[in-house]
Amino acid sequence: MRYRSTTKAVYRPGYLDLCRLYTTSELIDWFGHIADASEELRRDFDLMAQSGSTPMEYGLRVQSHPSLMVTSQVKMRAARNLMISFSGESVETVTFRVDSQTVNRNFQALQTLLSQLPGAEEDPVRQRNGSTEKWQGYVWKDVDSTAVIGFLSHYETHASAHRVNTQLLSEFISKMNDEGELKHWAVALVGSKDARDRKTLVDNVSVGMLVRTDKAVDGRYSIGRLLSPRDEGIDLDESSWGAALDLSRKSFKPDPGRGRINPPETPSGPAIRFTRGFGAPDTGVTATKQGLLLLYLLDPVESKAPKIDSSSPIVAFGLSFPGSKAGTKVEYKVNNVLWEQEYGHSE
After folding, report:
1. Which sequence spans correspond to the domains of the chain?
2. CB 335 within 8 A of CB 80
3. Which of 292, 318, 312 is nearest to 111 (CA)?
4. Which of 57, 46, 53, 38 is nearest to 250 (CA)?
5. How do residues 211-262 score in pLDDT, each as one tens digit?
6. Measured between alpha carbons, how far is 182 from 170 in angstroms, rounded to an integer?
7. DSSP assignment of 2-27
8. What are 172-176's contacts with CB under 8 Å, separation 24+?
9. Helix, strand, coil abundance in the chain, percent, nearest 5
10. d(C-alpha 106, C-alpha 156), whole Å
């Protein structure tokens, strides 16, 4: 910062709106999460307005949104309860433990799951608005929810992955099962066609590992985003995909400040989950009401992740929940004492 003799501050004339900030990698990670969550909520609201929802439903939506889960438990002076719903939401693993025991355990959990899934569709192909989409990997349909719950029960997430809490996710799916929902799932194992080597998981199932750049946060393996709307719609047929795209376009509002200028060419995640849960009666598209479990293998070497003393790849997953009016929620409750018992003091 330089000053003229008139005491008027001069900071790179013409760049006053581009001040440089210095902060920690952890804060950068948090602000990135907040930006993603805010954008997702904005899209949810646009879509809910288009579908005729009420302001009361907006408020309930915010209160139960999983992105707003408490993420600084050590600041809490007493136990607090938060009721969370994952209906119409997606969650994804973006932070991973790198100790060999956890890496191997998560890989074994994936192998156990896949060994229970017969009849895969290999390298799926989908028609999308006059074009053809191809994936390298496998898709299993009509998978019983017990297999998904079993995988989540054995998968161990990083302590800082508050939103992807496998215990809460398992409990939510079980409660939805009691309501007669989420009993059937589609499971997709998505690989990279550009990978140098294919990794074999079980007999006749192998995929190329993906590369996701490591953000080098506090010795853990942390990436930006895992899921994409393209993958999230892998289980939809052409008519359902088209209905989700139509809904995305109807709810679209130009906003140059958020990088939204032209109508979308692919359906948004919220529109996909809405269509999967409620269908599109005006076009004759029926709801599948199936959840979607997306699975990926990440290459820690090519991704330049922290050194991992394991030959197993990093297993990442995402869950896409269809929209629902069941109103099912699970309780998220952690207090200061419990957090310190589980993870130790943070300050």
Report:
1. 84-330
2. yes
3. 312
4. 46
5. 888 876 666 788 888 888 899 999 999 999 999 999 888 887 777 766 677 8
6. 11
7. EE-TT--EESSTT-TT-------HHH
8. 172/84, 172/85, 172/86, 172/328, 172/329, 172/330, 173/145, 173/148, 173/149, 173/291, 174/145, 174/149, 175/328, 175/330, 176/87, 176/324, 176/326, 176/328
9. 35, 20, 45
10. 7
> Cα angle vertex 57, ends 254, 256, to 5°?
10
Instruction: Give the Cα separation of 81 and 104 in Å (integer).
Output: 33
Alpha-carbon dihedral angle through residues 191, 157, 312, 307, given to the nearest 10 degrees: 110
Under 8 Å between Cβ of 150 and 87: no
pTM of the model: 0.79
Which pLDDT score is estimated for 8? 47
Cα distances (angstroms) measured from residue 93 to each of 3, 51, 69, 108 = 47, 30, 15, 17
Top pLDDT among 321 and 335 is at 321
Instruction: Encode burial over 163-179: b for 16+ CB neighbours within 10 A, e otherwise.
Output: bbbbebbbbbbebbbee
The DSSP code for 74 is G
> Could you tell me the end-to-end alpha-carbon distance of the chain, in angstroms, rounded to an integer?
33
Distances from the Cα of 229 to the Cα of 90, 222, 235, angstroms: 11, 21, 11
Residue 111's closest CA among 60, 73, 151?
151
Q: Which residues pair with 337 in a beta bridge?
A: none
The dihedrals phi and psi of 66, each to the nearest 5 degrees, come to -65, -20
Q: Rounded to the nearest 5°, which phi and psi values hold at 132?
A: -115, 130
Q: What size, in residues, is the chain?
A: 347
- pLDDT tens-digit profile of 135-167? 999 999 999 999 999 999 999 988 777 678 898
What backbone phi and psi angles, to 5 degrees, belong to 185? Answer: -135, 155
Q: What pLDDT digit, counting tens, does each position of 86-126 carry?
A: 888 899 998 888 888 999 999 999 999 999 998 899 999 99
SS3 59: helix
